[in-house]
Amino acid sequence: MVSRAMRISSWVGLLALCGKAPHRSSPKGSRKVKVISRTTLIGVTDQTYQPTLSQLRAFVAIAEYRHFGTAAARLNVSQPTLSQALAALENGLGLQLIERSTRRVLVTAAGKRLLPQAMATLEAADRFVATATGDGLSGALRMGIIPTVAPYVLPTLLPELRAKVPALVPQVIEDQTARLLDGLRTGVLDVALLALPTETPGIVEIPLYTEEFVLVTPRGHELAGRTDLVPGVLDAQPLLLLDEGHCLRDQTLDLCRSADAHPAAVGDTRAASLATVVQCVAGGLGVTLIPEMAVAAETARGTLDTAHFAGPAPGRTLGLAFRASTARKEDYQKLAEIIRDQRSAGPA
User: InterPro entries, from UniProt (predicted)?
Assistant: First the structure.
């Protein structure tokens, strides 16, 4: 049973939250003492509260960067201003969204639940402004891109975007497919350029183009220069692969399985980039498959030869992915057209 003292304490706190305070009776002739209690009630939501866009941007930035200083710098505000915006949002909602300590910043369960909606709200607001100004593709665009695409597409894609949509400010995030998809789901990313299909619920995929895989060999290799390869030739070859997590590794292994090919293991050799894999080939450690867009850049760095598969050659389809719930579908479809046209105009 709740004691009378606890009931009075709770009553005093609630009255103080509403801007009121009770008076305690004093002996006749003495002064009345006003009791003021300042209380923050987590779990009690002000039903009239409406968060501001600045507060939502503060929350999203902190959740994205997990660092108050970095988030403040990205929003071009001071760290105290950022902290005040988050505190106002949490107090208004009656929820703790961010857990902070001296060592780390974590998003709470409530924060994870509300983050996608906060992102959608900011996205809709940006879309509203873009529609009013007549330019849908404008402002910041957080674009994820896989490592086996980024070095070969960005040198021509970024200038093309500057020329066709000068109001757009791309922010490029290079990462593996799984983390890019997670970034899309949580609202950390707007779009991602990656290999399809991903078959991810809630994600829209727009195919852009397909490219062939090319076999890279050391100079003078028995397969060098051939144009009639079949996947079965990979059987027993010392095949070098990217590290786990890279989709190109999975695609290469799928190709081998489909042809019942069993490449020879190359010890513990692992690489995080195509450049490293290709240089291992140049050093005579084995052969590898790389996407067509990477051939010119990577084979120019060493004494290498290439070989091509007979048609239909194995390859991969690249596409643009974004959330199905986004309010900017038309903008991202336009972006996909720009990327596709840029690819068609010349080699990446």
Answer: LysR_HTH_N, LysR_subst-bd, WH-like_DNA-bd_sf, WH_DNA-bd_sf
